[in-house]
Amino acid sequence: MHATLPLLKSSDFPAMSRRRLDTLQVNLGYRCNQACLHCHVNAGPTRTEEMTREIVDVVIAFVRASRVGLVDITGGAPELNPHFRLLVDAIRNQDVRVLDRCNLTILEEPGQDDLAEFLASRSVEITASLPCYLEENVNRQRGAGVFDASIRALRKLNALGYGRAESGLLLNLVFNPQGPVLPPAQASLEQAYRDELGGRYGIVFNRLLTLANMPINRYGSTLVSKGQFQGYMQLLRTSFRAENLDQVMCRSLISVDWQGWVYDCDFNQMLGLPLALRGRKRVRLADLLQTDLTGNPIAVADHCYGCTAGQGSSCGGALSA
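RESULT FIELD:
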């Protein structure tokens, strides 16, 4: 696989600093039951990295000490970590919101028969990958049979109340472009998703989040192999909008990897660009239990243009209309 960090590190991206922390994003490991072409984590069935119970306990202690409002759990497929449910229960017992970044097909994996019911009973918010409402496009990007499995999973979640306004169970879907282009306008695409998924399959959801593909790991390597990397970076740079800098997720989020190391965002984690603090080149989450990160500089490189191009892109979708 082609390394993309050397192509991104020399950058003129504007300097940024942190505001008050409100979100802790936790990567429980890189093992996944899928191996999607656009995956910036390079996750897949053969990955073995996963967070231990010891680090999970540090996460729980940090949530208690920091009083963050949201814990965003991701992977890989985070549900494959044996401590996933323990972590969810511990955080919900602190009355803190939990978001599960779910690939939907995990609901059909052996041992996960009651996963949907577990998530609903704990009022866990679900952000689910569904990069298109057309079967051919989803299967091309995520693998044969993934679309049908995703539809079955969405119907199961809907039956439990997910995506229905009156239930309070949030179900958001995530769109990623098929190629090296920016996502279309989020609002109009969301309506198309509602029309297609509702009309054909009776599926409902709360919001659609549009995310730009990041030129790192598996996707970045694919761009390099096809001779499209520089063209895509030029698109991101020329589409830069300064107003998006105010809302990028790294202002108020930190990302912790399976070993407990801390990063300014999930993308920096995948590039190995750690959060630096007071002369220390990298820190563990355990080192931050009594630390206020407000004002700390954010590590940036050229991939940051992916979050600020066009309508902007973050873990919460578009940043501007």
